[in-house]
Design goal:
Helix content: 25-40%
Largest sheet: 3 strands, parallel
Number of helices: 6
Distance between the termini: 51 Å
Number of strands: 5
Strand content: 5-15%
Radius of gyration: 15 Å
Structural class: alpha/beta
Length: about 140
């Protein structure tokens, strides 16, 4: 039943961004020192509606900014921001930011570098010296 809802597009029409997401993604996308990628693990039947909705909500991105994989550890990144702890545990990222969600409250702090309230909090952490990756 759930897959049918996702496949036929009804749910996608109602989807909205979390607060601050548009502003943070737009700022990162326009920073010449940062290459931003959206990495998503998605059921094959909903790839198209999900990507179309992402591109609609975040028009500063294009299809080349989105990576679809079942295993995010294959993607070589300096910073990984995710709400699923297993993606952070398996990642080789230098900085691992866990976006706080009710379903990840049990996660131990040694599995990530920083627990962020939301994407804006993660962005502020990075800007305020949480990492030294962007020093020139």
């Amino acid at each position: 039943m759930l897959w049918h809802i996702l496949e036929n597009g009804v749910l996608w029409d109602k989807m909205e961004l979390y607060p601050h997401v548009y502003r943070v993604i737009n700022t990162l996308k326009h920073n010449r020192y940062i290459e931003i990628k959206i990495v998503t693990s998605t059921y094959y039947k909903i790839v198209t509606p999900k990507i179309n909705k992402l591109l609609e909500l975040l028009p500063m991105l294009d299809r080349n900014d989105i990576i679809i994989t079942d295993d995010k550890s294959w993607v070589d990144v300096d910073v990984l921001i995710d709400d699923y702890e297993q993606n952070l545990i398996n990642s080789n990222a230098k900085i691992k930011v866990l976006i706080n969600q009710p379903y990840n409250k049990h996660v131990n702090s040694y599995d990530y570098t920083y627990r962020a309230y939301d994407l804006l909090d993660a962005y502020i952490y990075i800007l305020n010296g949480g990492i030294e990756l962007f020093e020139c």
